[in-house]
Amino acid sequence: MNQFTASLWGDEAFSAILSMKPIPEIISIIARDTSPPLYNLTEHIWFQIFGTSEIAVRSLSFLYYLIAVFFVYKIANHLWDKKTAILASVLTFLNPFFFIYAFEGRMYSILAAAVTASMYFFLTQKWVGYVLATSAALYSHHFSIFAVFIQGLWFLKEFFWGEKKVAYSILKSFVAIGILYTPWLIPLYNQTRMVGGGFWLGTPSVPDLGKLILTYLNISLIALILRDWKKNLEKSVFLLLWFAGPIAFAWLISQKFSSIFFDRYLLYTIPGAMLLAGSQMQKFSKYFIAITLIFFLIATFYYFTHPIKRPFRDLATYVKATLDDGDFIVNWYSNGTHHIWETKYYGIGGPIYVPGGGELPFFVGTALMEEDDIITTLPSVSGRVGVVTSGPIEEISLPGYTKESERVFGTLKFVWYTPTLNGVGNEKL
C-alpha cells in the first residue's frame, strides 16, 4: 500500500464523481460550488485516457506536482545557477507538507504548478506564457489571486522605480488575463457570496499564522534564516513576497470578513520559500541544508509508504460481500460529515440519512447532490439497513431496527441493523 493506491477520501471522491460527468455538466455544477473548473476539466480528459482508478486520480496530481518542481528548477537556474536550481527543486520536491498534496486528488497540485509557472514567466518576461499560466492558475483555485497581487506590487515597483517598458508589458498582460477570466466572473461573484455567508473555517489567530509558516518550512526554517540575505536583495524580496504575501493577505482578510485561512489553500507559496532556502547559502549553512534534506527524505518516504486516508475500499469490499437482496445502505450525517461521495465512488451507494430533515450547508458538496441523495425517513425495505459513519456508533438511531453487527475500518464504521420484531414501521419515501 502506498499513496498511489490508498483509498480516496470525501473531497477526492467528490472531484472524481464530478469529473466523470460531461464537460457542460461539470462547469454547471462547479459554478454552484466553491472552486473554478480547470482541475475537473483536466481530470475528465485524464479519465477518458487512463480510467478512474485511485492510481489514475493520484497520477494526475503527481504530474502537476512534477511540473511545479520543474518550474522551481527553471526559476532558480534563471536567478542563480544550475547547482542552486537542483538544490531548490529537491527541497521543493521533498518538502513534507508540499509532498502530501502531490497525491491529493484535488486542485492543489495544479494550483501550485500554474502559480509556479506564472512566476517563472513573470521573472523571465515571457508574456504569452505568463498570460496563459496565470489564467490557468486563476481557473484552478481562487487563492491564486493573491499571487497576482504580489505581481501587481512588482508592477508598481517597475512603473515608479524601474523600467517603464517592462511595467507596460505587465499591464498589458494583466488586461489579457482579465479578458480570459471574464467568463468566470459571474460564477466567482456567486461563489464569493456563498462563502461570505458563512464557511466552515474559524477566524485564525496569530499563533495559527505562525503554525502555518512552521508547517510549510519545517526544519528548512534554519537554512532560510541563515542564508545571505544582503546579496541579491531584489531577488530575495520578490521570493519572500511570493511566500509571505499570500499568507498575510489570507490571514488579514479572515480577520475582517469570512475566514478563508487554510493551509492547503496557500501551499503554492512553498516553492518560493524553498527557492530562498536553497539559494545564497553561507558556508556553515551547508550543514543545515544537509540535515534538512535528510529529514525531508525520511518524512516523505514514511508518508508515501504509510497512507493515512480512511480505508474506504476495504469497507466497500466488506459491504459488497455481506449485502443481500432487500438490504438498504445509508450514510449517517455526523457533525457535518458524511461519506456519500466515497460510497458512490466505490459502488455501494447509499443516500445521506438526516433524521428530522434540515438543509445541509453548501460546503458539504450539495452542488453535486441529486434529489434522492438525502433522505429524512427510512424507506420500507424487506432486508436490513446498513449504516456508514465515521462518528460514534452510539449516536446512530434507527427507530424500528436493532443492531446486528458492526465492523470497524480505522476511523470508519459500518453497522448492519435488522428490523425489530413488532417494531415501528418506517414510512416509504
Automatic annotation (TrEMBL):
Broad class of the protein's primary localization: membrane
Q: Name one GO biological process term.
A: lipopolysaccharide biosynthetic process
Q: Which GO terms describe its molecular function?
A: pentosyltransferase activity
Location comes to: Cell membrane
- Record-linked InterPro entries: LipidA_mod_glycosyltrf_83, RgtA/B/C-like
Where the record annotates domain Glycosyltransferase RgtA/B/C/D-like, the positions are: 35-149
Question: Pfam family example for this protein?
Answer: PMT_2
Q: Which GO terms describe its cellular component?
A: plasma membrane
Membrane spanning stretches: 55-73, 85-103, 110-130, 136-156, 168-189, 209-226, 238-254, 260-277, 284-304
Instruction: Please provide the record's keywords in A-Z order.
Output: Cell membrane, Glycosyltransferase, Membrane, Transferase, Transmembrane, Transmembrane helix
Does the keyword field hold Membrane?
Answer: yes
In the bilayer, the protein is annotated as: Multi-pass membrane protein
Keyword Mitochondrion assigned = no
Question: Under which name does UniProt file this protein?
Answer: Glycosyltransferase RgtA/B/C/D-like domain-containing protein
Instruction: Give the organism the record lists.
Output: Candidatus Woesebacteria bacterium RBG_16_42_24
